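Quick illustration, no need to memorize.
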Amino acid sequence: MAKQFKVEGTDEGAICISVDGKPTILSVDSDIQAEDIYSSLQYQPKDTYVFEDGGAGKVAQAPYETFRDFLKEIVIQVNKLAEDDNAEQDEDDTASQSTEEAFGVTDYSEDIPF
């Protein structure tokens, strides 16, 4: 499922990460924990994200851009995971179908009289 991921600076000088409108505020004056970023993603397997840059607001431009680019890279890598999972699932489905066809496997469950 595609989720909207937005990063922006706030008027208070913090960084706001929103996923589908649910905000997580991160202070640039303290350590930002990886767990906070992970939690803000609200990640479920096979989720993808559409990245949006809302601007630096009152956060200094250089630190904002660095952090924004870091978050964008996370989104890119998570999207790749979802693509890889979907590609593997398609390959598995195709392989199963080919094996069934090759061995002439047929569903006889309707023909069983009991």
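The mean pLDDT is 85.
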